[in-house]
Amino acid sequence: MSKKLNIGLFGFGCVGEGLYEVLNKSNLLNAEIKSIVVKTKNKKRTLDESYFSYDSNVILEDPEINTVVELIDDAEAAYIIVKKAFEKGKNVVSANKKLIAEHLDELISIAKGKNLSFLYEASVCASIPIIRNLEEYYNNDSLSGIQGICNGTTNYILTQTNYGKDYKTALKEAQNLGYAESDPTLDVDGFDSKYKLQILIKHAFGISTSPEDIFNYGVRYVTKENVNYALEKNYHIKLISHAVKLADKVFGFVAPHFIKADHPVYAVENEFNAVIVEALFTDRQLFVGKGAGSHPTASAVLSDISALQYNYQYEYKKAESAKELYFSNDFAIKIYLGSKNEIKLKTFDFHEKDEIFQSREYNYITGWISFSELLKLDFNKEEDLFFAVLPEPFKSSEYFKRSEKEELLFA
Ligand SMILES: NC(=O)c1ccc[n+]([C@@H]2O[C@H](COP(=O)([O-])OP(=O)(O)OC[C@H]3O[C@@H](n4cnc5c(N)ncnc54)[C@H](OP(=O)(O)O)[C@@H]3O)[C@@H](O)[C@H]2O)c1
Fold first, then answer.
1. Which of 95, 267, 304, 385 is the most exposed place for a label (fewest CB within 10 A)?
2. What is the pLDDT of residue 405?
3. Atom of ligand 1 nearest to the CA of 43
């Protein structure tokens, strides 16, 4: 017999209200929302005012509440709430990727010390069940890579720019449709995709990273010249959260990629998200689904609540085998780098150049470059520069060091 879950719910916005609705429609769970804590007094709600309180202790100090569901939009406040919930012996479900990306190891350690569960399936690509699959299904298969379209706002924008709209129009549309916030920085500059990549890397490879370790570059300065280049080559531009294991290193970053027509995410459009898992035995597998929205996100929260009925905990088993693995930015990729100003392009030191295009209006170079060259700039602040990763496997930096030495020998 599953145990009864008495839930204390923090947040009654897009996801919190969605959870209330899906929980009421699901009669499979032995769970009930006992209290809801929100922030703003006198806000119009769809439930009677008597359901709500504004003091977190109403949930945290209630001994009957055994489950805290944290669905607020403030990562700092969420950190305090989640720690206190563990202190009080309550299991926690959260959807807050920023909180998790910034504090995961500490929160895991506190939860483990008290034999409590900390589940967060909704934090990565909302309705796509990727975390539990990485934990359980791929536990015995050696993973070599994971890549995803992890942000619906930017995928919507890039879908529309691929169809000929300019960036500003596409962003405005995304805001009108409720996909993008009025300040879209976290989405369009790739921060949101980075937080999700950090969580994926933890569950896929067992490695802990902090937000500072991972390069994130978004789509703010994509131009019609870049889109036209992609269309000429039959590519789609997608913002990809990308991690690859090569020998004892895991490389990971967020950046626009040119995606070929035979790639599984080529046709994943608008607000949809996708994750590709690459593993030794299963080869390449694709998950597609809604990466945001009230009910899709709430469904992942519901699934975590359901798992709590059976005392489910993530075991982070891959952390054991990851002792010999480490996160690295020491690799080379093939990119397209474009600018109106050809002088700007000359400041980049490429290992090899494939194509150099110059005109009065626009210039670009394609070729192999060390990732460390790209780390020198904050591309999110460079209005007249755009780069995208070309469809070639990453190479270790050693590859080019070796060929440079060989060239010297044969000179
Ligand atoms: N929206 C999505 O599609 C989606 C998808 C995946 C993950 N998530 C994550 O889910 C979480 C919630 O997102 P959302 O879209 O539902 O946000 P939202 O619509 O902006 O709602 C946020 C809720 O949090 C409450 N809140 C804020 N600070 C609080 C505090 N200190 N104490 C108590 N309540 C507080 C707000 O209270 P008031 O109502 O009083 O203002 C509001 O009810 C975020 O971490 C987000 O990243 C969202």
1. 267
2. 47
3. 40
Angle at 349 between CA 354 and CA 260, to 5 degrees: 40
pLDDT of 245 > 50? The answer is yes
Task: Tell me how far the alpha carbon of residue 59 lies from the centroid of ligand 1, in angstroms.
Answer: 17
CATH code for the domain defined by 5-124+296-315: 3.40.50.720
- Ligand 1 pocket test target in 39, 43, 79, 192 with most atoms within 8 Å of CB: 39
CA quadruple 42, 48, 50, 54: dihedral sign: negative
Residue type, 134: L
Atom of ligand 1 nearest to the CA of 300: 6
286, pLDDT greater than 80 = yes
DSSP 98-153: HHHHHHHHHHHHHHHHTT--EE-GGGTTTTS-HHHHHHHGGGGS-EEEEEEE--HH
Residues flanking ligand 1, CB < 6 Å: 10-16, 37-40, 43, 71-74, 77, 95-97, 122-123, 126, 292-293, 297
- The residues, ordered by sequence, that sit 6+ positions from 390 with a Cβ below 8 Å of its Cβ are 258, 333, 334, 335, 336, 366
Cα of 54 vs centre of ligand 1, distance in Å, is: 14
Residue 172 catalytic? no
Query: What are the residue boundaries of the structural domains of the chain, listed by start?
Result: 5-124+296-315, 131-292+330-400
- Residue 178 confidence class, pLDDT cut points 50, 70, 90: confident
Burial class, 15, CB count within 10 angstroms (exposed 0-12 / middle 13-18 / buried 19+): buried
Q: Lowest-confidence range among 238-247, 282-291, 394-403?
A: 394-403
Which residue has the least CA distance to atom 19 on ligand 1? 13
Name the pLDDT band for 2 (thresholds 50, 70, 90). Answer: low
Judge whether 5-124+296-315 and 131-292+330-400 match in fold: no
Q: Which of 3.40.50.620, 3.30.450.40, 3.40.50.920, 3.30.360.10 would CATH assign to domain 131-292+330-400?
A: 3.30.360.10
User: Quick one: average pLDDT of 282-307?
Assistant: 95
Tell me, what's the pLDDT at 200? 98
Are 162 and 237 contacting, i.e. CB atoms less than 8 angstroms apart?
yes
